[in-house]
Amino acid sequence: MSLTSYRPGPAMLVTAAFIGPGTVTACASAGIGFGYGLLWALVFATLSTIILQNMAARVAIVTGQGLAEAILAAASSPPVRWATAALIFAALGIGNSAYQAGNISGTGLGLALLGIGDDLVSPPLRALATGAVAAALVIVGKPGWLEKLLIALVLAMALAFIGGLIVIDVDWSAAAAGLVPSLPADSLFTAIALIGTTVVPYNLFLHAASVRGQFSPDGEGIAAASMDTAISVTLGGILSMAVVIMGAATSAMAAASGSPLEDIALRLEELFGPPARIVFALGLVGAGFSSSLTAPLATGYVLAEMLGGSGDPARRTRIFKRTALAVIAIGTAFAVLAVNPVELILIAQSANGLLLPILAAFLLWVASRRESLGSFANGFVANLAGGLVVLVCTLLGLRLILRAAGVWP
């Protein structure tokens, strides 16, 4: 496949998933707090995501299995297999329910910034409406149709966030300097958060499920899937950088509300007029709603792979839809009860971040097995790159655990 013949494919779901309210929050905070100085962290995160998502897609294309199936099939004994299945299910079920709450809350906050129902509709009602629409799409939507909808939402986000750069003044020389790795004072935790909100564990399962049957299990199919991943994830990285740049462009102003998302929207409006606030809010709505679909879809795919059986498509479909609807219901309930949506979004990031190093290690192991992948198994360079990503993910997970225990502030 040549670049000129490229059409958006399954990897766009990855971008739709990781450009959610958590990413927008982290990027807005980074830009407001540290200007352009942490753009390099998003470059690293984007490259890491491409490496891991390529492995997940390759495993699925060559083996014909979802990632959960491939991991369980590679487990050496029934006790290991059951323990692995329980870990995957518990972590994705709990983590994605938390993420879903943040996604729904972020969508509602974006609608509020647009002024939609701000005077007539309370945040809990906005959360209920968002959850209801997401549930309806899961019930009646077909996989191919949902994929097209998510691709459209990604393109809408691109128009909003990249379009926002057109209406603001950007110091491009300072932005270029931010691509050189450095850590401004007190920026370590923010840099780690930028990486953690981009390399999202459940995207590995979502991507593997979505590529099955769409690419041929040969060199040409693998190359086409790799190009799809590289283009889609790079677009997501550019969107994240656009939000950092928006925050940096307004960083000299005093905080407006204490919420990074509201701060950046109000600062943009004060500096560059209502159009700047509107495009940012539209991007936030697209980010929240696209992720409101991908989190339950990923959880549904995983549970259907583990419990659905290989010869009963109807059973798999039932498990998939019931699981996805359960995640939406739990996330909506949490969003309705939440006092501060930004805090909920950050808690969701931490919950799923704990799973990241474990899944990255599992993926590296499965992608290196010549018994199942043959000549498409990881070589030395792929293992070296994957090992570096696993190391960084492990440090990220350790930091989250220590922070939760109060050992690391």
Automatic annotation (TrEMBL):
Q: Which keywords does this chain's UniProt record carry? A: Membrane, Symport, Transmembrane, Transmembrane helix, Transport
Q: What is the membrane topology here? A: Multi-pass membrane protein
> In which compartments does the protein localize?
Membrane
Q: What sections of the protein cross the membrane?
A: 12-32, 38-61, 82-101, 121-140, 149-168, 188-209, 230-256, 276-298, 319-339, 345-368, 380-402
Its primary localisation, in coarse terms, equals membrane
Q: Which InterPro entries match?
A: NRAMP_fam
| Pfam families in alphabetical order | Nramp
Sorted alphabetically, which PANTHER family does this protein's record hold? NATURAL RESISTANCE-ASSOCIATED MACROPHAGE PROTEIN 2 (PTHR11706:SF33), SOLUTE CARRIER PROTEIN FAMILY 11 MEMBER (PTHR11706)
Task: Report the protein name in the record.
Answer: Manganese transporter
Name the species this protein comes from.
Blastomonas aquatica
**Classification of source organism:** Bacteria, Pseudomonadati, Pseudomonadota, Alphaproteobacteria, Sphingomonadales
Gene field: mntH
